Every structure is written in structure tokens, then in C-alpha cells.
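Example record

Each entry pairs one chain with its bound ligand, fe (ii) ion.
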Amino acid sequence: METQNLTPFDAVVLMSFGGPEKNEDVLPFLQNVTAGRGIPDDRLVEVGEHYYGFGGKSPINDQNRRLLDALRREFERRGITTPVLWGNRNWDPYLTDTVRDFAKRTGGSRFLAIDTSAYSCYSSCRQYREDFANTRNVLAQEGLAVSFEKVRQYYNHPGFAYAELDCVHRGLTNLIQKVGPLDPQKHRLLYVTHSIPLSMQQASERQTAGYREQHLQLIKWIDQELGEKQPLSAELVFCSRSGSPETPWLEPDINDRLEELAAAGTEGVVVVPLGFVSDHMEVKYDLDTEAAQTAKDLGLVYVRAATVGVDPVFVSGLVDAALERSAQYRGEPVDAPAVTPEGPLSPGSGSCSTTCCLGRQQKPTTPSWDSLADID
Ligand SMILES: CC1=C(CCC(=O)O)c2cc3nc(cc4[nH]c(cc5[nH]c(cc1n2)c(C)c5CCC(=O)O)c(CCC(=O)O)c4C)C(CCC(=O)O)=C3C
Ligand SMILES: [Fe+2]
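C-alpha cells for the complex follow.
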């Protein structure tokens, strides 16, 4: 019997990046994101233009509203009565405001977070835990005691993995509709994720397979699952590089790779945004606008596979991951499934928390024992 029980948590909080809703939001949002992170001004102007091109509205908030709704419906379907809240790092509704409001309204103090990023690295894992510590510290000064736990990074959880598999399968079907039978000489599968600085990549490798390798493991699993149906070679490419040009980031960039492939005789690609759980601005601009234009200029057929979004298999997997974390927290034996050889990254075990993914400056994180004293 599955444990349909989130004890001792008072609420689940969907934790995300946040994005602007209108033109006037864009600058303050970018200032929030980049405070103290050394992003060159011309890059900020460029990224601002991406947002203005969409009327100043990032797609991410509406995606999160849909996910929030889907999670609530899945809780209801399973008879779980724990409330599901939503909070962001960089824009309204901010995590601190959501949590303060809930704590004052209900007296609840223990929060279990589900992040909208699936892999391990500073930006996608540890920085969220710094956010939890920040909220905890701000609210402590206001006399409210709150605590946070989070579910594991879920890139290899069957819910996310099978939902991705379905996205790839549908992308391939779409390409076949456009070009006829697939030909490994002419067609290719490009998995895309957010580039990160090499230093951040290296920090992610200290205790786990690391950011890049986690993607490669999932790609390998998808490839095996597709089996004979899928003759194309697959590779991982990157998008959304920022930072200063002298700092090395993960490569190749998708646009550069499309040029190389076209020159070598490729005629069509399926682009799978494996690193993004829904259609964020990176997907809408960097892939659907920029990379699609690159492909068009090169005469390539370009199919963009879907993101998992609110696929019921994904949503149900997230609820399973929350139940798993609760049971683990209570000290009960748990079944923690994973599709890749690395296995589940148990949060709080140290495998993806204590010393991994350190940022440039060391800041407090949650859980509270994960402090500077634990860093070797
Ligand atoms: C790994 C990763 C994820 C995936 C994990 C996760 O989801 O958390 C992610 C997500 C996102 N990143 C986003 C937006 C931005 N990221 C920036 C900057 C940066 N991202 C980085 C990495 C990542 N970012 C890094 C290493 C930087 C350099 C600065 C730094 O070291 O921190 C900048 C500043 C301008 C620029 O430099 O491009 C912006 C505006 C949005 C919102 C999009 C929307 O509106 O839909 C989302 C979901
Ligand atoms: Fe980012």
C-alpha cells in the first residue's frame, strides 16, 4: 500500500524561478536575478529584449499556475488534504510572502518544497536551498519559525523520465510526418539543456554524477526505451549561455551545432528541451525563436519536442516524490525508484546536499545541519 501521507509537513510549496508579467516588470526582475552575479550589461539588455518581444510577459508563471492546479487535483484524487502553495525566487509571488501568509493564516510551519528543476547544480538545486534558508531567516526576525525540506532532484524519477520519453516519441512522430521515414544520415536528435559555467559543472560533480552526466544518463535510458523504433543518433547540446565571454561554459551551443550538422549533410532535427520542465522563456525564445531561425536559415527541418509541462505521468511522479520524501523524513523504509544507474539522489543524505554544488560564496542552506561546518 502506498503511503498517502505527507506528515509532518503542513504544506507543499511549488518553488520556482519566477518571471515578469508585463513590460514594467522586466528590469526589476532582471535586477533580482542578476544581483551580485557578474552578468555583463549588454547581456542584460539582450535578455530584456527577449522579454519585451513577448510583451514583457514570461511564460513561466502561467506554466506554474497550471502545474499548481494539476498538483492540487492530483492531491485531491489521492485524498491528500495537505495544501499546495506556490513561491518564487525572483518574482511575485515570492517564497517569503507565500510562506509568511500561510504561517500567519494557519499556524503551519513545516514546508516540503518541489522545485521546478530536475537536475543537480548550484542554479537548479543548492540555490533553491539558499532561498529556503533566507526565507527562514527573514521570517525568524519577524518572530515566525518555519522550516523546509525538499524532494530529491527528479531527473531520473520514473514520472519525469517516462513523461520525457513520451515527448521524444511524439517529436519523432512529428518529424516522420514532415520528412517520411527517418534516416540516420539525414536526421538527428538534439537534446538541449541550459548551459552553465564549467566551474558550476565541476561543483556539481563532487558527490553525484553531475549536471551534464545526469542528462546523458537520461538520454541513454530514453534511447534504450525507444529501441529499434529510433535509428537516429542523439547528442546533448546547450542553450542560454550568459556570463562574460572569457568564462568557459558548457558547449556546444545549439546554434553552432546546427551549423556544423547542416554543413555535414543533416537535413532535419528533433530538438528536445530535456533540461526544462515546461515552456520557459529559454524554450520560447532561445529554441522556438532563435534556434528555429538558425535552422530555417540553414534549410533544416526543425521539430521542437514538447516539455513535460502538466503531463499526468510527470505530475503523479512529483506527488510520489513528495510522499517518498515525507516517509523518508519520518524514518520509514521507502521505495525510491530511479531509471538511471546513479539511482535516486536522496535529499539530506549528503549525496545531493551537503557539499555538492557550492556557489562562489558559501551561504546558509536548509536543512539547518547543512551549514558551513559540514563543508570540507
Ligand atoms: C541551470 C539553470 C536553469 C535551470 C534550472 C532552474 O530552472 O532553476 C535556469 C533556469 C532559468 N533561468 C531563467 C532566467 C534567467 N537566468 C539567468 C542567468 C543564469 N541562469 C543560469 C542557469 C540556469 N538557469 C546561470 C548559470 C545564469 C548566470 C547567472 C548566475 O550565475 O546565476 C538570467 C540572467 C540573464 C542571463 O544571464 O541570461 C535570467 C533572466 C529562468 C526564467 C525563464 C522564464 O522567464 O521563463 C529560468 C527558469
Ligand atoms: Fe537561468
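The pocket of coproporphyrin III (ligand 1) is lined by residues 17, 19, 30, 33-34, 37, 39, 43, 47, 58-60, 116-117, 121, 123-124, 194, 196, 200, 242-243, 280-282 (CB under 6 Å).
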